[in-house]
Write a structure and sequence with these properties.
The protein has about 325 residues and is α/β, with parallel strands linked by helices. The protein has 13 helices and 10 strands.
Length: about 325
């Protein structure tokens, strides 16, 4: 059995899929398998997967109906055999020495979680931005796990693709069955579970994963079910921090600030949508009963918020929804 399993969830990415496969198969460490799940693609992605499986025995392909990325990842995980799991999105690429570099860290330090940076390539402008988690490489364990939670809450560790996790830790997130339909914040939550399960971790300050930022058309609405699931999930993360002895004044402030960011994502989606103003207000009113909304409008969530963001949430707090959306429209103009 291979030491590493690379999970690729595939959905309508025929333009970039071959480059993704090639970057994984070019690894300088060959002790891995690829488990690709074609999640109901309607383009030629499924055929491309089969082509790679036919020419390389390390590639395993599963075709299924479309049920979303979380369920596709679970399918890939359940059909994998590696001791350590890496996640790669179907339109991204990785450095040829990623697995070799990670393997050296795991062998040297006995890690069950290794983290690394990513670069973001903007398809429209060609600009490349490196998203760094921390200032220096470092070892993490129970004594300084709090720092990983702070990185997570600061949204510098969102992508599941920037981690290599021991099999047992990776699979724990799928035990939270209610979150499988979530399509906003699922990577963040799964990353939190991996931090919670971690005994020894290591951060490599190097962008070895390369994310392709593809401009897509704006959504006409917002998945409120996913918003509510995302809202619920951050309370589970709070519980994880408490169990790890990492919940104190600093992490609580960051946690509240993160709750505000989740609500702000909803605001931005509504503002950018083609809904009428009345529909936007109605959608917003429908979530005012959630705990995350109540936390987000409180002054305790002001930590790290800009003046504009603070103003937006004051308007929310006092129910000035029409003025809020008109202000957001003016800000984006």
């Amino acid at each position: 059995m291979p030491k590493y399993s690379v999970l690729i969830t595939v959905y309508n990415c025929e333009k970039y899929l071959a480059e993704c496969f090639d970057s994984v198969l070019a690894q300088t460490c060959g002790d891995f398998e690829i488990v690709a799940v074609n999640d109901g693609s309607t383009d030629s992605s499924g055929a491309i997967c089969d082509e790679y499986a036919a020419k390389d025995s390390r590639v395993k392909v599963i075709h299924k109906k479309n049920h979303g990325v979380n369920r596709a990842r679970r399918t890939a995980f359940e059909n994998s055999t590696g001791d350590y799991i890496l996640t790669v999105d179907c339109d991204d690429i990785i450095d040829p020495d990623l697995i070799e570099t990670v393997d050296g860290i795991i062998t040297g330090h006995g890690c069950d979680l290794v983290l690394f940076d990513l670069s973001i390539f903007d398809e429209e402008t060609g600009k490349v931005t490196v998203k760094e988690m921390a200032e220096t490489d470092g070892l993490f364990d129970e004594r300084n796990k709090k720092q990983l939670y702070l990185i997570l809450l600061n949204r510098c560790m969102n992508s599941l693709c920037t981690k290599c996790c021991k099999r047992e830790g990776y699979g724990k997130a799928f035990g939270y069955e209610k979150y499988l339909p979530m399509c906003h914040g699922e990577d963040w939550f799964q990353s939190a579970v991996q931090v919670h399960e971690m005994k020894v971790g290591y951060y490599i300050k190097k962008p070895m994963y390369h994310y392709r930022n593809i401009v897509t058309s704006l959504s006409h609405g917002y998945d409120l079910k996913s918003f509510r699931l995302n809202s619920d999930s951050i309370f589970d993360v709070r519980q994880m921090m408490e169990e790890d002895g990492c919940l104190d004044g600093e992490t609580d402030a960051m946690w509240r600030a993160y709750a505000r960011k989740v609500v702000n994502t909803l605001l931005l989606a509504l503002s950018d949508s083609d809904m009428t103003e009345k529909e936007k207000i109605g959608t917003l009113k429908s979530v005012t009963d959630t705990e995350i909304y109540k936390i987000a409008v409180g002054r305790e969530a002001d930590f790290n918020s800009s003046r504009k963001t603070v103003l937006k949430f004051r308007l929310l707090k006092y129910g000035m929804f029409r003025l809020l959306f008109r202000l957001m429209k003016k800000m984006s103009a």
